[in-house]
């Protein structure tokens, strides 16, 4: 019997069952089993590897930061690679609707991509506010791929703080 026959009959490391020897501690058995599971998970024949590179259902969704002060809200959206003409901002009652389309670059001939991680496509983000906004004073600035929208609160909605005196009872 040759060495190649022995290797062909030997079960793969992923298929071996965890065996506990009498002189082995239970913790070492658990550690060996965990090592085997990790080896199996990261092996080349991982059955779900095609799912890891599958195209996501949402092609492009800008990241948002929303902050609030006593007098206004600020919404900042990351829109790298976009221009002002590709972005639409609407205010419907007390809801901000940010939409647009990030267009892909022109097709390049004689180039083979092995991996593309940039995303393109149309998007829409809807941000409801629970406070009445001053629609006439809403402004937007687009700089370095970041859109910043300032939404002032309506005069009635601005909460005023006042000091409350504590009396001895």
Examine the secondary-structure arrangement and name the CATH architecture of the largest domain. Sandwich
The low-pLDDT segments are 3-10, 46-57
Determine the CATH topology of the largest domain. Immunoglobulin-like
| Count of structural domains | 2
Question: Rounded to an integer, what's the Rg over CA atoms?
Answer: 29 Å
Structural category is alpha+beta
Shape: flat
The oligomeric state of the chains shown is single chain
DSSP strand tally? 7
CATH class of the largest domain: Mainly Beta
SSE string = HHHEEEEEEE
Helix content: 10-25%
Q: What's the number of helices?
A: 3
- Mean pLDDT across residues: 77
| Distance linking N and C termini | 99 Å
Largest sheet features? 4 strands, antiparallel
Residue fraction in strands: 25-35%
Widest sheet: strand ordering: 1-2-7-6
Structure description:
Residues 3-10 and 46-57 have low confidence and may be disordered. The protein has 169 residues and is of the alpha+beta class. The protein has three helices and seven strands, in the order αααβββββββ. The chain is flat and about 75 Å long.
